[in-house]
Every structure is written in C-alpha cells, then in structure tokens.
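> call design_seq(struct)
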C-alpha cells in the first residue's frame, strides 16, 4: 500500500479505536424537529426515519425557517439573481452588501463592517492579516478552532490563558510586557459566549486589562450576537464594553450563513487591501445579504424571541433532576456534563430513541473527560418541548 493511503487508513482506524469517530447524519429539518430519513445512514441504523425534537441547532432565535426571512431571500433572488459573480474587489461587492455593512456598523456601533462568507474565514483573515512576526497573540484556551488554528499558523507568538481566568491573563500580559518592545502589537482574543460551555467571557475585566497593557481586544461573538444585550447587540453590549474588533457570524442567531468583522475605518481598509480570505474569495450572494438585512431588523425588533429563550431556560433548569449536571448559563447553550465520552454517546442515542436529538460533544472538541450533551434552545421551542426533553434526560440519566 502507498504510504499516503496507509497514513490515512491508520488515522481513521485510530479514531475508531478511541471511540471518537464522527459520522454525519443526513437530516431533514422542520421548525424545531429533525427527521432522520436514513438516506445516508447505514442500513442497520436503529434511528431509521425517526422524527425528533431538535435540541442541537444554533438557530437560537428560530429565524432560519421563518417565513419573513425565506421571503426576504426569495425577494433578493428575484432582484439580484443567484450569485455575486466575483470577489468583492472585482465586481462582487453590490448595493445589498453595502447596505448590510452599513446596517451592521450602525447597529453595533463601529465605523465599518466587512462581510465574509464564513466565521471561520473571518477569524483566519483577522489573525493572519493583522498580526506579524514579533507580535503577541493571547487567547483563551477554549477559543474556537478557527481562532486557535489561525494563531498557530500566524507568525505572531501565541500564548493561551486558562479559560475565563482574568488573573492568568493579567499575569501573562505583565510577563510579556517585560519581553516585548514598543512596536509589538498585542492582541487578546476571546469568544463572547463560549460555544461548548455557554458561559460568557469576563469582558469588562478583560477590556480594563487590555487598556492597562496597551493591548487590542478582539471578541468573536458568534454565539452572543442576536441573543444577548440591548436589541440583541451581543455580549459586549451586555458587558458594557466596545472591543477594538468584533466578529459576528450569521450561522447562529441570524439563521443564515456568513460573518462580519467590525472595526474602525483604517483597520477595515487594511483588511480590504491585505486580507487574502477577503480579496480572493467570492462575495456572498447579494440575495443572501438582502436576507441578512431582514434578519438584522428582526433581531433588533423582536425582543420576544430573547425573552422566550430566557423563559425556556428557566423551565429546563426546574424540570431536570438535581442529580443531572446541568451547567447554569444565561445563554441558550445548556450543557449537561457527562465526563466519559462513551457514556455521552450512549445517552445521546437513548435520547434519540425517545424522540430527542441532542448531540454528544467529545474530545477533541472539548477537553478529555469533559464530554457532554450540548443542549441548545431556540425561540421556536415550546414549554412542552422542554418538559419532554427534561423527562427524557432524567430517564436516561438514571438508566445509565
Ligand atoms: N467562531 C465561533 C465561536 C464558532 O462557534 C463558529 C462556528 N461554530 C465559528 C466562529 C465559525 O463560524 P462559521 O460557522 O460561520 O464558519
């Protein structure tokens, strides 16, 4: 066998033997239900054609299938056609993109917003383009893979601090200040809401530390924007801060796809000139930008969606057996800690048998021995759905 094929096969076999092999399930989705038609599953799948309540989507506000958003996208398609046809610096940047950028910048309080086709790409562009050799990048240990990978590949020196530990961050900033020069750019990067834990970063304290050490602060608010803060402005608004750079993504509360970097005029122009992920990538379809403008308006105006999420969170906390290790969060991400990855998978499968879809999250996505069921709530769930979820978890928990 060719060594390349051997390498691939042994990596796959290692994943299998560690019990960490991931497989995709092809699901049809309707409101807060998913239907596993078994179209891609193996014939022996015990979950063939099963309808489940979906507690694993990031569509927190329930916008992804809302008629108003679907209609906006259709309207965009009729007006602008299917695709943008080019990258933004060629002919891909169109009035629908411009209007969305302006709307985001005004809403979130920045000079400029720059659109990207994914949050992963936006984070890569941000760290690769702004940081150079000799610079210092400081990240929370639990930051998203897109930030970690960009940091590891960037020429800047990367340091990580224990999750949400501002003392550790302060020490790191103080220590590094002694070894850096006046020219060194320092950047602290954190998520606003951590995707696997659902907890919020201590943003106010972090901003104070960054100011004291002349460091930039960048916040990836993929999971906070739309859900927290006044008019859904996100975790920074809730914490009363305005970081130098804010990343928002559209695959979660916006119910769509894509991302934006918010920053000052010069930084935005620097990214337009030098960010390869921006310059050499096709602009998102203008119809999508049009739909995103509609999502942005709905987020600002429809407070009831955020209020309902809070109410559903309280119902869940009350209905779960106290022995179940539900992490208390202020966000729609409600992890139930299990620890052992095989037990987490078994619980997820047993929940599926009871008509509940909750994914088991295992290493390497989360640290070893911290496997969990990651429950996410959406504004489309009803209190009765939450009670059904809690009853099923209570049963499965005690059956283990
Ligand atoms: N940042 C965070 C914190 C995320 O959770 C994700 C997606 N899960 C991303 C960035 C990437 O965003 P996208 O899905 O738009 O690529």
């Amino acid at each position: 066998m060719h060594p390349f094929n051997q390498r691939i096969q042994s990596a796959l076999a290692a994943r299998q033997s560690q019990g960490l092999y991931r497989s995709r399930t092809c699901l049809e989705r309707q409101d807060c239900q998913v239907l596993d038609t078994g179209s891609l599953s193996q014939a022996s799948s015990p979950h063939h054609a099963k309808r489940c309540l979906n507690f694993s989507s990031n569509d927190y506000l329930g916008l992804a299938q809302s008629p108003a958003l679907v209609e906006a996208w259709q309207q965009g398609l009729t007006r602008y056609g299917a695709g943008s046809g080019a990258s933004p610096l060629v002919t891909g940047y169109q009035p629908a993109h411009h209007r969305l950028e302006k709307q985001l910048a005004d809403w979130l309080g920045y000079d400029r917003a720059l659109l990207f086709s994914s949050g992963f790409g936006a984070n890569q562009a941000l760290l690769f383009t702004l940081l150079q050799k000799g610079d210092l990048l400081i990240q929370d240990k639990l930051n998203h893979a897109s930030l970690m990978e960009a940091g590891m590949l960037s020429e800047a020196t990367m340091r990580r601090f224990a999750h949400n530990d501002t003392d550790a961050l302060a020490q790191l900033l103080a220590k590094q200040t002694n070894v850096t020069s006046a020219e060194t750019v320092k950047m602290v990067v954190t998520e606003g809401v951590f995707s696997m834990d659902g907890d919020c970063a201590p943003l106010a304290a972090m901003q104070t530390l960054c100011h004291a050490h002349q460091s930039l602060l960048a916040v990836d608010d993929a999971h906070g924007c739309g859900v927290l803060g006044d008019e859904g402005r996100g975790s920074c608004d809730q914490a009363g801060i305005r970081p130098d750079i804010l990343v928002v993504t559209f695959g979660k509360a916006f119910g769509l796809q894509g991302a934006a970097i918010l920053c000052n005029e010069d930084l935005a122009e620097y990214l337009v000139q030098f960010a390869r992920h921006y310059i050499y990538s096709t602009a998102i379809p203008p119809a999508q930008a049009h739909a995103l403008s509609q999502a942005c308006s709905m987020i600002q105006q429809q407070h009831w969606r955020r209020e309902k999420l809070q109410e559903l969170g309280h119902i869940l906390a009350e209905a779960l057996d106290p022995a179940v290790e539900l992490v208390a969060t202020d966000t729609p991400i409600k992890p139930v800690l299990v620890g052992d990855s095989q037990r987490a998978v078994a619980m997820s499968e047993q929940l599926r048998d009871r008509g509940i879809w909750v994914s088991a999250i295992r290493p390497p996505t989360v640290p070893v021995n911290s496997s969990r069921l990651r429950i996410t709530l959406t504004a489309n769930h009803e209190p009765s759905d939450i009670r059904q979820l809690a009853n099923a978890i209570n049963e499965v928990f005690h059956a283990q």
